[in-house]
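Input sequence (88 aa), recorded before submission:
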Amino acid sequence: MKKKLLRTILLIVILLLAIVLGKVGGDSALTIPWVSFLGAGASFGLEPTVVDLYILKFTFGLTVNINVLQAILILVGILLYSHIKIHE
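Predicted structure, token format:
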């Protein structure tokens, strides 16, 4: 049980690091001409929708922004995770 929980936490940490470092690196790469392609990205999702029920008001929406460096680091993180062995 501990091993499975540890692997799950490790995967989450690796993916979060890949996303954050990819965003920072991709935004920084936009200013350097020969690596600016790493900052190119796409945005997709659902526009915010408001549901007004008179006493409650809900807003639903989801937008995902991803750049090339984030995608590369996520793939590297998944490959790295698959090769990590955890011993108890």
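Checked by second reader. The radius of gyration is 18 Å.
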